[in-house]
């Protein structure tokens, strides 16, 4: 296998979905329905897996809570019960078989304690082993503005630059305290950035002082879009932060470890040609239902 070929994707899906309570007391947020362009109601996680496969990924590891193994297994591994199968239209029976085939590419990994996004990523270490991987959020879906999917844009760029790639989008100062932010030097204006620093949910003051990027409008910043291709060395920094109990707001985060990875081996930022839809908050989920289709 070429050193820069990305075969595996990791999707953390082990959170509690507290921002969508009480619905998430009975349905995992990753299983909330969205309607695709064909009018099919599908769980969010299925759209994310399909996005990964569109980039040529051959194995998708979904990190779940042990108690949720059954419901994810039902979706990706088990055929519908006989009574349901009998009631399905021919088109849905065909789709059910497609799901079984897709499920062969899905591996379910577990996070026994919910200790944050960075910790969830670390739970995939033994499965990923020593190769680069695509990292996706469990509550974001994507639509490309060009004929290549958002994930394929990332995978192809990684093959060229052969270093970790973080997808970027522009955000106004008012909401950057909800996102990971980056700064660096443009290699190609408004497209490729040599990242020099990543910061988790910075204050506006900090961003104005440390995260300005040349050529950007005042009070506009580059923030993480939610797709990453990372070298396996990220696990060394995650392991260190867990070992030393370095938490941010009580949890092990990814961004601080990304910054360490960036300092050690360089990192490319890519302003993705596409849109990101957040299904993890009531209002953004409602908007996703309208816009995604």
Question: Which structural traits does this protein have?
Answer:
Spore Coat Polysaccharide Biosynthesis Protein SpsA, Chain A, 293 residues, globular, GalU_uridylyltTrfase_bac/arc, two-stranded antiparallel sheet, 13 strands, five-stranded mixed barrel
Would you mind describing this structure in some detail?
The protein is of the alpha/beta class and 293 residues long. The chain has a single domain, classed as Spore Coat Polysaccharide Biosynthesis Protein SpsA, Chain A. 33% of the residues lie in helices and 27% in strands. The model has no long low-confidence stretch (mean pLDDT 93).
Q: What would a concise description of this structure say?
A:
Belongs to the UDPGP type 2 family. With 293 residues, this protein is α/β, with parallel strands linked by helices. 33% of the residues lie in helices and 27% in strands.
Rg estimate, integer Å: 19 Å
Could you describe the largest sheet, including whether it forms a barrel? 5 strands, mixed, barrel
Overall body shape: globular
CATH architecture: Alpha-Beta Complex
* Name of the CATH homologous superfamily: Spore Coat Polysaccharide Biosynthesis Protein SpsA, Chain A
The whole-number mean of residue pLDDT values reads: 93
Per-chain topology:
Blueprint lengths: L7 E5 L20 E3 L5 E3 H10 L5 E6 L4 H8 L5 H6 L2 H14 L2 E5 L6 H6 L2 H4 L4 E4 L3 E5 L5 H12 L2 E9 L7 E9 L3 E9 L3 H7 L9 E11 L3 H10 L11 H11 L1 E5 L2 E5 L3 H10 L2
Parallel strand pairs: 1-4, 1-6, 4-5, 8-12
Antiparallel strand pairs: 2-3, 6-11, 7-13, 8-11, 9-10, 9-11, 10-12
Helix pairs in contact: 9-10
């Amino acid at each position: 296998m070429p050193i820069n070929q990305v075969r595996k994707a990791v999707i953390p899906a082990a959170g509690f979905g507290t921002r969508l309570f009480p619905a998430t007391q009975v349905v995992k947020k990753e299983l909330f329905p969205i309607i695709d362009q064909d009018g099919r109601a599908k769980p969010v996680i299925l759209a994310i897996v399909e996005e990964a496969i569109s980039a040529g990924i051959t194995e998708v590891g979904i990190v779940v809570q042990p108690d949720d193994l059954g419901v994810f297994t039902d979706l990706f591994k088990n055929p519908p019960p006989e009574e349901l199968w009998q009631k399905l239209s021919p088109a849905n029976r065909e789709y059910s078989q497609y799901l079984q085939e897709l499920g062969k590419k899905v591996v379910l990994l577990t996070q026994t304690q919910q200790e944050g996004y960075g910790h969830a990523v670390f739970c995939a270490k033994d499965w990923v082993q020593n190769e680069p991987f695509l990292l996706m959020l469990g509550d974001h879906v994507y639509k490309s503005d060009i004929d290549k999917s958002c994930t394929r844009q990332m995978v192809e760029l990684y093959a060229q630059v052969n270093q970790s790639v973080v997808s970027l989008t522009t955000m106004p100062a008012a909401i950057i305290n909800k996102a990971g932010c980056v700064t660096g030097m443009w290699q190609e204006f408004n497209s490729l950035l040599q990242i020099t620093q990543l910061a988790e949910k910075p204050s506006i003051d900090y961003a104005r002082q440390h995260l300005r990027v040349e050529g950007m409008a005042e009070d506009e910043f580059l923030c993480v879009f939610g797709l990453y291709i990372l070298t396996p060395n990220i696990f060394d920094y995650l392991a260190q932060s867990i070992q030393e109990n370095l938490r941010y707001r009580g949890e092990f985060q990814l961004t601080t470890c990304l910054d360490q990875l960036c300092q050690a081996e360089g990192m490319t930022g890519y302003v993705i040609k596409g849109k990101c839809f957040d299904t993890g908050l009531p209002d953004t989920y409602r908007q996703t239902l309208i816009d995604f289709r």
